[in-house]
Predict the structure.
Amino acid sequence: MTVTTRGRSAGLRRVPQYLALLAYVVFLAFPLLWLLSTALKTPREMALADPTWIPREPTLANFADAFGEQDLVGAATRSLVVALASSVITVVISLPAAYAMARYRGLVNRIAIGWVLVSQVFPFILIIIPLFMILRDMELVNTLPGLVVVHVTFTLPFALWMLQGYVRAVPAELEEAAAMDGAGRIRTIVGVVAPLLAPGVVATLLFAFISSWNEFLFALVILQDPDVMTLPLTLVRFTGPEGVARLGPLAAASLMATIPSLIFFAIIQRRLKSGLMAGAVKG
Amino acid sequence: MTATATRPAPPTPPARHARRRRFSRQTREMWVLMLPALVPVLLFSVGPLLYGIALAFTDARNTRNHETSFVGLENLGDLLTAEDFWSSFRIGMIWAVSVTGLQFLAALGLALLLNQDLRFRGVARVLAVVPWAMPPVVIGLMWKLVYHPDAGILNSVLGTHVNWLADFSLALPAIIVVGVWTGMPQTTVVLLAGLQNVPRELYEAVEVDGAGRWRKFWNITLPQLKPVIVAITSLDFVWNINQFGLVYVLTQGGPGGQTRLPMLFAYEEAFRYRFAGYASMLGLAMAVVVLAVLGLYLWRQMREAK
């Protein structure tokens, strides 16, 4: 009964809903489409008075030009090195701590969780000034290791939070069963916990990678020499007072800088849905 | 846990002794496991935080050769009498409150739509996550292209000739729109998850009474969603008041300081004019304000819930 009445009124009721959905799609999509459109336009077209949505003579030249501009390749390489180093270090040092947080509850655990929350609330500016002074005394300003240290420190709380959740999802009974079978502590962790934890570790690794790849404020403060700047900094320097001629390559470079993050979100959405953990727990 | 599982026998004196030894071994083990994470956090996070709070009460300069001395509350006095601080503070509050509020309303609407069985919602679902996946710097640059006075699409569509980001009265609203666009995805995803956790039986119960959609929304959806709403709006507020990169890329605080959020103000004081002590006090003041606003908000919500 309810199904039929609902079905009849649905047609009319749905019209405003579809209009609202369309409005959202337009709002969310139009800047993205404009970025794409700008990336495909020739410098000559950029200079024309009345810009159009669809490029009159679409070109991929901007993508090629972007590679030649302002050491973008160098900046992307440095960003890659920094992001790889900080994500691996973050996971390596936070994995044992996450394990401890998940398995031994108590005061330390509560302090750690408290710190995770506090680190989300505090204005970075309060930390970045003394941090800059400390790094300057350690001769780490204007160096990539300096930035790696900072990225590791500030990705750590959330990485810990993610990882301890994944560890908690691995039932302690599994470890106890392995221990009863005579497996040592190390063998229990390597043989039983690690395989189950792998998806969580991958997700955390990707999260840390993207945080570092996208990060701007710390890089701005720590890297002042153009020769060591990471991709976000170089992209910002791209926009000078030169007018519209270089907007095309800028748009192309921006699109390329987004690719790692898009891959991350594509992967993580599948990861979150995978029922690997559920299977392990039930079995 | 392990002790009871493997040794079901009642604890005889030697067993108890063994358990105590095991406990201390566990504690030691825990510290060893925590150590690698603890060292960088203490060295580069807790340490600087305490150092920063101390700096706020000194006349420290961000230069190599400067004798730093303790000045008490002088920085706070300077801050509270500085007109540009108050204007930055006001702009920061307008920005954080309006972005958080608009973000919430827009996200709630989108989450409600996505929770319906509509066609094409897959497209909207993917689009709703894209801003989340973009580097803030790229979002800033992209919107700069949209707002560009000559090559931007906005003027072309509206048939106007406005320099959006350089206009004294339009720059702040313009960046607020970007803020909403940027932060909407997280809020939508969280609210959608909350919506999907509302038990269906609750709706069925009032449907028997013939409740309309509005009544269902007000009497069931909203109260059920409230903890999620409180949590995500609090987080959004904190993230927004601490926003830096997006606005730095869009306007650098201009025109004439019309979009100079507190974090941009502090950044300029610390790294352009090198007043480390003064900027630290600014950071400290902002932390206190954020904690106070958050505390008041959460306290009121909790009292209402009782």
Q: What stands out?
A: The two ends of chain A are 42 Å apart (CA to CA). Chain A touches chain B through 89 residues (CB under 8 Å).
